Amino acid sequence: AGALTTTFLGHQVSNPFLNAAGVLCRTPEDLLQLASSVSGSMITKSCTVEPREGNPEPRYAAAPYGSINSMGLPNLGFEFYKQFAVEHRGKLLFISVSGMSMDENVKMAKDLLPVAKETGCIMELNLSCPNVPGKPQVGYDFTTMREYLQRVSSVYDAPFGVKLPPYFDIAHFDQAAAIFNEIPQVAFLTCVNSLGNGLVIDVDTETVAIKPKDGFGGLGGRYILPTALANVNAFYRRCPTKLVVGCGGVYSANEAFQHILAGASLVQVGTALHEEGPQIFQRVVDEFALLMRAKGYNTIDDFKGKLKTL
Ligand code: DOR
Which pLDDT tens digit goes with each residue over 184-210? Predict the structure, then answer.
């Protein structure tokens, strides 16, 4: 086992890197590319009970410091991703679930549970999609979020994770963490989803970058690294019995190392994976091994969560 080997909820992974849900994981072809990449694990596109076309195109755009998207949850439907999990062999697999209602989430969780127990796949419940018109982000409504997690955990007696939106206020870190700490099945928190409802404007054309929602969409990439790191560390400090998965602004080993120092057990790559393709995992793994060696670290646990304060 190499220096980047680590374990997550009892599963060994060859390295802490995987795709961010949504990137390169919607179709069978996408998933095959991830499965054959160097990533230590992988996650499927957030699914709904029924297949969805998503929002009108263009719905993703590269921007000066990252990306903006308003995909609107295009996906092949829960049954497809569940069947993928049944047939999948090899690296650890996460299944992202993002129902259009509480009942949809409860239904998918119930149906996924036997597959999770049989195959070891792990549910990541997405409570933070910013892009479906008329559907507010559940993660910003603490009363509704508690109800979702109570209902899902009442039918799902296996460990699962929650994909969170970025929070920006210490009181919100405290309130959200208190909810997660009430629910033992919530085993990890993935911080963060895209920073919702940004607006990217091109001065030459005086036009927005994407078509849905008059150009409003979730920001990813360099724009969001410090916000992502703050959320990882805030929940790492407040939820000592949970794991944290970092997501936001990772392009190289440098940003990945920052996430792990802040407390992340795994690190997801979104915008940079979309821009560079699955070869990014080989590059980041190679860079990360060099960085660890230069710093004299032998294992991930030597520095995970060991961020110093002044
Ligand atoms: O940025 C995002 N885009 N986050 C989500 O949770 C969903 C996705 C989409 O499909 O719009």
Answer: 999 999 999 999 999 999 999 999 999
Tokens encoding 27 = 């179709």
Q: Which residue has the tokens 């997690």?
A: 149
Q: For 155, phi and psi rounded to 5 degrees?
A: -110, -5
What does the pLDDT look like over 239-294, one tens digit per residue?
Answer: 999 999 999 999 999 999 999 999 999 999 999 999 999 999 999 999 999 999 99
CA-CA distance, 157 to 153, in Å (whole number)? 6
Q: What whole-number distance in Å separates Cα of residue 237 and Cα of residue 232?
A: 9
Reply yes or no on whether 247 is catalytic: no
Mutation pick for ligand 1 pocket among 127, 193, 210 (CB with most ligand atoms within 8 Å): 193
| DSSP percent split of the chain into helix, strand, coil, nearest 5 | 40, 25, 40
Atom of ligand 1 nearest to the CA of 74: 10
72 Cβ closer than 6 Å to some ligand 1 atom: yes
pTM more than 0.95 = yes
User: Ligand 1 atom 4: the closest Cα is on which residue?
Assistant: 129
Identified catalytic residue from 25, 47, 129, 247:
129
